[in-house]
Amino acid sequence: MSHSPFNTLSRFNPPAQPEALFYSLPALAAAEVGNIARLPVSLRIVLESLLRHCDGHRVSERNILELAQWQPRAPRSEEIPFVVARVVLQDFTGVPLLCDLAAMRHAAQASGRDPRSIEPLVPVDLVVDHSVQVDHYGTPQALEQNMRQEFARNHERYQFMKWGMQAFNTFRVIPPGVGIVHQVNLEHLFAGVRRQETARGNLCFPDTLVGTDSHTTMINAVGVVGWGVGGIEAEAAMLGQPVYFLTPDVVGVELVGRLREGVTATDLVLTVTELLRRQKVVGTFVEYFGEGASTLTVTDRATLANMAPEYGATMGFFPVDQKTVNYLRTTGHSEADCELFEAYFRAQGLFGIPRAGQIDYSRTVRLDLCSIVPSLAGPKRPQDRIALPDMASKFNALFSAPEAEDGFARPPEALMQRYPTERAGVALGNGDVLIAAITSCTNTSNPVVMIAAGLLAQKAVARGLHVQPHIKTSLAPGSRVVTDYLEKAGLLAPLAELGFALAGYGCTTCIGNAGDLDPAFNKAISENGLVAAAVLSGNRNFEARIHPNLRANYLASPPLVVAFAIAGRVNIDLDSEALGAGADGQPVFLRDVWPTSEEIDSLLPFALDAETFRRRYADVSADQDLWKAIEARSGALYDWPSSSYIARPPFFELPALPAGDITGARALLLLGDSVTTDHISPAGSFGEATPAGAWLREQGVERADFNSYGARRGHHEVMMRGTFANVRIRNLMLPADAAGRRPEGGYTLFDGQQMTVFDAAMAYLERGTPTIVVAGEEYGTGSSRDWAAKGTRLLGVRAVIARSFERIHRANLVGMGVLPLQFMADDSATALQLRGDESFEILGLGPELVPMQNLTLGITRADGERLERPLLCRIDTPIEVQYYWSGGILPYVLGELMAEGAAGH
Q1: How large a percentage of the chain has pLDDT more than 70?
Q2: Which purpose does this protein serve, as stated in its record (predicted)?
Q3: For residue range 455-466, what is the model confidence (pLDDT) as tens digits?
C-alpha cells in the first residue's frame, strides 16, 4: 500500500522528545481525496482511526474514501467500522459483560478451542461506582457505614470481578470508593495522546473509546471521540471488532457570549438539553464551536458533554484547545505528556475550537450564553426545563393536570393539605422535599458548582438556617479529589452541618441508589397519594428512578440542591419567597446566600492542584482495605459457584432464530411515548411481590438482602423477571378506571386475564407463540442498559414496533436478535386502534434482508378484520443484518473468533 494516498504514516517532532509517528490527516488532504479541513473535528478523529486500521478486511480504503468525502446534508447509508483504543465499564453494566466473556470461554472450550483465546485486545477499565447506596446519611460515620454495607451486599460480585482481573490480561478494576466512572475517566484514565511501539518507531494516536454507560460522553469535553454502547457492543469492541455505526449527521452548536453572574454550567446544560431535544438531534454527533465555547472551562464543557444522552445525541464534542492542555497539567499529567498532546493535535491541524464558517456542519444551532437563566428540570424528564421563578406555579399546575399531559391528576383541593406521619412531629405535604442529593457525574466533576454549594452552605449556616432532619440529604462526590479541595477550602464542614455529610463516592441517587425513606414516610405517601419530591444534581429523573414513592424529581445545580433542602419544598418561588428565617428571626432569601463569582474564584486554586491528583491516583487501591480483603477465584475458566448474584448466562445456548416471517404473534405490551430503559429494565429496589423478589425468596434470600436490580445484573433469572417490571410502567392493554387512569406496574393480559408480564411471557413461550411490544415515540431513552434488550429477548419478544427509537437501545435490540421496527407516516398504536387482542404478522423477512428495508405488518383483529401496514426495518447497517441472523452480536463474534482459530490451525 506504499503507493496508496491512504498510507499517510508520517513523522512529527514533539518538544524535547524523540521524533514520533502518526497517521497524518494533512497528508490525506494533500492527496485531494476530500476537503478534509472542512470536516467536523470529531469526524476527522474517526477518519484517523480508519487510516490507522486500514487492513482491507476490518477497514477498507472504501471506508476511508466515504468518510473523507462526507457531505453535510447527504443521505446516510454507509457504515463506519470504528476501532477504538480502549473500553471503559461501570460495575452494573460491567458485571454482566464479564459474565458473557466467562461464558464465551466455556463455549470456546466446548468447541475445542483454547478458552484463553477469548481475551480483550484493547485495555479495559471497570470502575466500581454504582453499588454504593445511601443507607446512612447526615453523620460523620455515613461513608464508612455505607461502604461496609456495600461490601457485605456485593461480596460475590466483587469476588467475580477479582477473578476477571487475574483471568484476563488487559482487564483492570478501579475498586469501590474511588469515584464515579466518568470523573475517574476524565481525571485519570484519559491519557491525552496514546502511544504504541512499532517496528518503525513510536506511533502516536488520539484517545478513543466506548463505554457501557450512556454518560461516557463526558470524555468528549477533552477532544476524545467516544460514547456509550450496550455491554454486548462493548464486548465486540474488546474482542477486536470495530464498533459499526451509520455515518452520522454532525450538528454544530455555536455558543456565543458568556454566562452571566449567578448562572451555572448546570443551568446551561439544562437549557441545551431542552433546546436540542426540540431540534431532534437523536443519533447525530453534536459538536460545539464558537467564541462562547472557548470561554467555557473544561469542567463546564464536561457538564455539557456528559448530558448528550439527555439531549439525544451520540456525542457532545469539544475540540482540543489550550484549556484542554492546561486541564491535563492540572490533573497531574507529566509535562512531556502535555507537550506531546499539544504537538500531536497541532500536527494534525486539529488544535483550537473552530469559529463560525470554518467547518461544514449538517446544520447549526446558535445559543447565546447570556440568555441562560437559573433553572431546574423535571418532574419526570431531564429536557423539561423550568426557570427558577416558575417552580411554584409549574408544580401547582402539574399537580392537577391529567397524566396524559405529564401531570399527577390529583384533585386541586388536596394541593395544600398536610398529613401526619407516624414519625413524631413530622407532617408531609405535596411538594415537600424528602431527598436532596449532591450526586452524579454531571456536576460533581465541576469544581465551580461544588464550591458554590459549599459557599452557599457556609453562608446559610452563618445566618442560622438549617435543613429539616426528615429530609434525606447526601453528598456523593465524583472523586476523592473533590472532598480534598472542599476540605482545604473549609467547605466540607458547613455542608455536613446542613446534613450534606459525605455518604460515598459513586453514582448514588441518580441511578436509584438513594436508599429507602423512613417507613412512616412511605406509608403516608402511599395512603394519601402524596406527590413528594426529590432535588438532585444528577442527569436522570425518570419515573420511579430516584425512589419509587417520589413522583416529582428535579435536576438542579449543587447550590440549588442545598437551597431547596433548606426551603423544604419545591413549590416555592425562590426569587420572591424566603428560604427560611435566620437566627435573628429575619427572613433569609436565596440572593442573601448565593455566592459571587469572585468568592468562587478565590477558592478554585484548591481544586486545581496537580499534586492532589497525582497523590490520589498513584495507587487507587492503596487504602482500600475492604477491597484487599476479598479473596478471588483463580484460573482461566470461572467455575460458577451457586449464587443469586452471578450465573452463567444462557445467550450461547438460545435456539437459532427461525428464518422467515414472524406469524401468529401476540402483543405482550402496548406502551406510550418516552418509555425509558428504566421502564424496561429497572435499576432500583424491588419487593417480594415482584417476580424477581418471589424468585429470590424461593432461593432463600431474605427481603433485607435483595439489594437492587442493578446489583443483580449478573444473574439472568433475576433480570428477566425484572424486565418490564417498573412500578410506573403503563401497559395500555389494561382497562382504564372510570377516571381514565390505567393501572401502573409490570402487568399485561393473557387470554383476557391480568397477570405479570413475566408470567404471560413464559405462558406464550410454552405455547410457542411469538410476542411483540408496541410503543410510541423515543422508545428506549435513558441509560445504555443492555439488560433492557437481553431481558426482552429472554421473554421471547421477537420484535418491537415503535414510532421512534433511542440510538443505543435500538442497537442493543439488534445485538440481541430482537427486530426493531418503526411505524411509517402517521401510523401508531392509537391510529391503528390496537387493543392488544390482535394477532400480528411481520412479512418480508428473509435471508435477503437489507438495511432499512420496508416490511409489512399484518394485523388480524379479534373480530376477524385484517389490515396491512408498511413498517421500516430499523436494522440500519449491513453488519447488523449479520448480527440479527446470527441471533445477536455475541454468537456472531464467537463464530468469527472460532473461524479465525480454525484458520490458524
Answers
A1: 99
A2: Catalyzes the isomerization of citrate to isocitrate via cis-aconitate.
A3: 999 999 999 999
